[in-house]
Amino acid sequence: MDVRKSPIPRYDLLQKGFQNYPIQTTRGCPHNCKFCCVSRIYGKSYRRKDSEQVVEEIKFLKSLKKNPFVIFVDDNIFVDKSQSFQLLECILPLDIRWQAITDVSLGEDKEFLRLLYRAGCKEVFLGFESMNPENISDLQKSRWKAKKVRKYKEIVRNIQENGIRVFGAFILGFDKDTEEDFRSIRDFVVENKILGQFTILTPIPGTELYEEYRKADRIIKERSWEYYTFTDCVIKHPRFTPEELEKTVADLYRITYSKEHYARVLGNLVKAYRRLEAGG
Known about the structure:
Elements: E1 20-23, E2 26-27, H1 38-42, E3 47-48, H2 51-64, E4 69-72, H3 81-91, E5 97-102, H4 110-118, E6 121-129, H5 133-137, H6 152-160, E7 165-172, H7 179-191, E8 195-200, H8 208-215, H9 242-256, H10 259-277
Helix pairs in contact: 2-3, 7-9
């Protein structure tokens, strides 16, 4: 489907108490990670709406709610940087607050980050996946993200210095995972003052990962579709039991969303806001 022909969603049908409003500006992802179903559903070709089309959707939202918080639900909204610059320039005058999902390369472009902040971005969702480059290499044939692991700390710092909160996604349960890898994730989240999503490696039917695990008889047959929650384990791991992986995920959530850690995350952002507003 040509997304440029998509009609404006009927946001007016949502209940009045609705707080977050989804907008999709693109479909498809060129990276084709073997655990991810996005390229299987939307394809690897990257298609996007015209910037003017997105502006009209936002204006319609603002006619319904004075200060909507927009979540751009694209799986990787900023793949095409030149068109992304154009989109941000169009969004900037609309005075909205929003969140976006993209990849870690975002944190390497300081000019883009400055425009991102000015355009109202408050948070970015980034797929870090693992602190072990070998784990990430197993997911992507191109191995482009594995080469970024050593830059993760710098990437987070660049984003935070521009007043944008980082929400990182991490996966546990790679074959090479050890207790030390889990501690590395915990330490990275705590030391860099970010929030996180923690999931267990889950082979979704239709993905390359699913076929790989199915052929190796590594999917727990007794755990049916109701267990595909990403916090329940459905795989046979060479080192950890399902219960051990599930407990590790729960522990990471407990640490990351403690009052103490959340206060550090917000305090770090407040410092960035004050510096930016002072022209620093």
